[in-house]
Amino acid sequence: MNYIKHSTGFLVVRTARSMRKALDTEFAEKGITATQFMVLDALMGQGALPLSEIGRKIYLDKPAITGLADRLEKDGFVERRRSSDDRRVVKLHLTAKGETVHRELEPLVIAVDQDLTQILSADELTAMRNSLNKIWKHADGNLDA
Amino acid sequence: MNYIKHSTGFLVVRTARSMRKALDTEFAEKGITATQFMVLDALMGQGALPLSEIGRKIYLDKPAITGLADRLEKDGFVERRRSSDDRRVVKLHLTAKGETVHRELEPLVIAVDQDLTQILSADELTAMRNSLNKIWKHADGNLDA
DNA sequence: AAATAATAGTTCGCATAGAAACTATTTCCA
DNA sequence: TGGAAATAGTTTCTATGCGAACTATTATTT
Q1: Could you tell me if residue B40 is inside a domain?
Q2: In the structure, how far is the CA atom of residue B131 from the C1' atom of nucleotide C23, in angstroms?
Q3: Backbone angles phi and psi of B78, in degrees to 5
Q4: Cβ contact (<8 Å) for B135 and A129?
Q5: Which CATH number is B53's domain given?
Q6: Among B19, B5, B27, B18, which Cα is nearest to A61's?
Q7: pTM of the full structure
Q8: Tell me, what DSSP letter sits at residue A2?
């Protein structure tokens, strides 16, 4: 039995690899990765968020978020500030530069998503999104962040 | 606008992270990762395959496959053999040990997939698999392997 | 209040991932 | 046939991604 063909888990993993690669390729010009964009996006309209909360939003463990914050801070897209009410917490603040990059990349995100409407009907797309959201909600909380 | 919530691309990526983590956790006991299992699985019933063909099956670039082959060979799950008719080609052969590990892990793969039937109805699952396969087929060929 | 547990981040080590540049081989074609 | 183009893998460098162990801080318990 070959599971890469028949297992839904592996199918999702495999498909996601192609998705992320498409996004990474689009973003490369702006010197940012798809995962880094997800961090900036989580901060949009929030002002600032604790690292752990960002991790929950984009499903990444603590060490991964630390590394992402390092690189984003080095490039001036975000700023680390220790919270005053709970000094264990480090909040990530979006800088003006980070906000600008996010705005510049919006059309690319929309384009990649639009590409999907060429492959799937509106109904198929809606159904898939609903199913993925159900799985996502089910998995949420299993994260050691 | 927050795209991690609204973009289908990011939704797939995020969901896949939770899937792969679930699979990795199940496999950790046997000292193998989900991605390494995918390589063994690609070889099951094939005897041997060129590295590049394995890459196409599981959507990974050439350098990633090289690294995977290194680690799998070190652990004795596969063997590298240069092809005699085209000496550029390196074929990966599944060893008895590799076959055994694959067989031992089958129940875990089935269990993770079974878990999904608790979340989605049979129709939803079928629809999602069809959609993912369409996207997958569309993306196939964009790989630099 | 002192000891303990819980929580937020970081660090370390290892396993993916991919772009770019390289070697070795084969194919193509003028 | 001989040189250019294409192909298969590898190497190097950088960026995720996660388990385990660590520090610092806060909450809990007795």
Answers
A1: yes
A2: 41
A3: -140, 170
A4: no
A5: 1.10.10.10
A6: B18
A7: 0.92
A8: -
